[in-house]
Structure formats: structure tokens, C-alpha cells
Amino acid sequence: MMRKLICIFLLLSLTTPAHAADCIEKACIDVYTQDGKIVIEGRKGSGPVQKKSVAPAPARTKKPVIKKSPTPKPRTSGSAKPRIIPTRKPPVVRKPVIRTSKPQSLSDKLTEMLPTAGISYSPSFEPLVNVPVFFWSDIPEVITKRIEIVGEFVDVQLKPTFFWHYGDGVVYVTTKAGAPFPDGQIRHTYQKPGNYLIELITSWAGDFTVDGVRAHINGDVQTVAVLPVTVVAAPTRFTPSITYTR
């Protein structure tokens, strides 16, 4: 049992520094969803985040200042002349201050908003019961973006899934954006006249690529668009009978 615990401890101690060193030489990029937005985070380096690194200025060594002491006046005596010995102070040399630069790190965070789908339908004026109504949205079926963060390029690809709620209890799910008559694939026929509230829920999912490595974006983003539609009954015309006589 003790051998197993020691082996596990050694494995953890060996793998932890290697994982921490992943962001030193190359950037660590993460893309996820939060509050209905796409969030891109990037980090590179091992130290605290600094906005700008300034190189330390070279230390300057001042020249030593030599002060001469005043020469004393010789005293005369009757026997011998005095000997004059000048005194000098040693120069003061200041030691240069060596500044060590701390490890630096780059970090950034970007958010991307996703478009909200617009709803269109035809015929646009008072659709009739028992007649197909064509629906479509103005959202592309694939969205690609290239974003630069901490010196790395991130390619993001997003694809929507459309949930059409026609207001009469029928729901249609598709990955197509639809088109007007006659090429549209999204169509619905109402059986009764009335006012209906069209609700389009767009669910986004995708992946991102950094240095040729693709990863899935965690989470999903949903946007909602609504539009009222009034469906009317087809007018009924009565043709009077015509009697032909000879």
C-alpha cells in the first residue's frame, strides 16, 4: 500500500511542473461560451502579467574625487628644515546596482458577440390557411473568424441549428437558413386563421484551431427572435346560377 502511495506521489510531482511549463514557450488558448458570448483567453509566460517591460538602465560609476589636504606651513628652526609629507584620502568607489528582471507573462481576454437571426416569410401580406408559408432567416449557415491574441492566431468556426416554433404547437429543427418561394425548404401550412407568434431559437456550436490543432468550444450560445404572423381565411365567392333558354 505504501509503495502505491509513493508511486502516485512521484507521478504527480513529475507531471505538475511539465503542465505548468506548457504556457512558457507557446501560448495557451482557450475558447468557451459565457453569458451568451464567445470568450477567447490567451496566456503566455510564467510570471505575473505586465503591460510593458522596460530594460534597466546601465549603472554609472562616478569618478573618484581626490581632495587634497592643505599643505601646512613649514616651521623654521635653527637646526634643520622640516620635511613636508602630503596626505591623500582614498577614493570613494560606489558599487553598481544590478537590477534583476522578474519573469513576465502576457495575458488577454476577448469576447465576441453572435448575431441574432432575423425572421422573414412569404407571402408577406396575410398568408392564407391551407397554403404553405415559406420561412427563412438572414444568418449564414457557417461563420468563420480569425482572431489574434497574445501573438497567436485563432480560427473560430461556428455553425447554427435553427428551432422554428410556428405558434400552433409545431416545431421544426434544421441546419438550413431557408429561402423565399419557390426554393425555400422551410415551409409550414396553417389549418386555422388567427394570430400566431413565430419564435426562432438559434443554437450555436463550433470549434477553434490554433497551430493546426482543432478543439471543441465548450458550451453553447442561444439567441431568440420572435415575429407575429396573421393568417386569414381564403375569401369564398358564390357564383349565381345562370339559366339558358332557347
From TrEMBL:
PROSITE patterns: PKD (PS50093). It comes from freshwater metagenome. InterPro entries: PKD_dom (IPR000601), PKD_dom_sf (IPR035986). The lineage of its organism: unclassified sequences, metagenomes, ecological metagenomes. This is Unannotated protein. Residues 161-203 form the PKD domain. Residues 42-86 are annotated as: Disordered.
